[in-house]
Amino acid sequence: MAEQTTRPGVHRAGPADWRWLLGALRARFETASFGAGAAFVAAVGLLAQEADRPPDADLRAGHVQLALRGRDAGGVTAQDVRLAERISALASDRGLSARPDRVQVLELALDTPAPEAVLPFWSAVLGGRGADGSVVDPAGGLPPLWFQATGSTAPDRQRFHLDVTVPPEAADRRIAAAVAAGGRVVDDSRAPAFVVLADPDGNRVCVCTELGRD
């Protein structure tokens, strides 16, 4: 089994192009066209096959996003970091621009006094599977849904909220932009792990980072 790494630096996980977000090394590379992105993904596939570390890849018209996690080791490994370095070198050789500031992960959170009771229902509705108390889409098409225990049973409480995890260096800008757009900071006592914001109608969202979670 490959040696599992510790959390590899949340500002720069492995190569400077990559960020550690929610258990994976993630990167985004800007491409000139869909064809250029497809060719890059194909080349990444050859590297990944050689390393036996298949990444998650999201190919769009103007960019490619990649995520590396050691599926057989329960976390990111030294092998994943080495593969990330090779992918970054490949991207540089092809003239692709890395945009780590644009990497982000969206989760849905449901506040409930009965997490274990409602998890099977949401697994069935979303066609997902339970994983560490969350509902995960095996195909990766839907954001994970996790359950936050609460003692409140008020019928008008906010039940769902979004968690947006971004690189630490992007969090302050994201929060400032939200406040400038009419929002407000509800609670920053757990910053930089997360800051709770609310829109003008009072709907809440958390901007999260990997800092301060230990």
UniProtKB/TrEMBL annotation:
<dbReference type="InterPro" id="IPR041581">
    <property type="entry name" value="Glyoxalase_6"/>
</dbReference>
<dbReference type="Pfam" id="PF01329">
    <property type="entry name" value="Pterin_4a"/>
</dbReference>
<comment type="similarity">
    <text>Belongs to the pterin-4-alpha-carbinolamine dehydratase family.</text>
</comment>
<keyword id="KW-0456">Lyase</keyword>
<feature type="domain" description="Glyoxalase-like">
    <location>
        <begin position="108"/>
        <end position="208"/>
    </location>
</feature>
<protein>
    <recommendedName>
        <fullName>Putative pterin-4-alpha-carbinolamine dehydratase</fullName>
        <ecNumber>4.2.1.96</ecNumber>
    </recommendedName>
</protein>
<dbReference type="InterPro" id="IPR036428">
    <property type="entry name" value="PCD_sf"/>
</dbReference>
<dbReference type="InterPro" id="IPR001533">
    <property type="entry name" value="Pterin_deHydtase"/>
</dbReference>
<dbReference type="Pfam" id="PF18029">
    <property type="entry name" value="Glyoxalase_6"/>
</dbReference>
<dbReference type="InterPro" id="IPR029068">
    <property type="entry name" value="Glyas_Bleomycin-R_OHBP_Dase"/>
</dbReference>
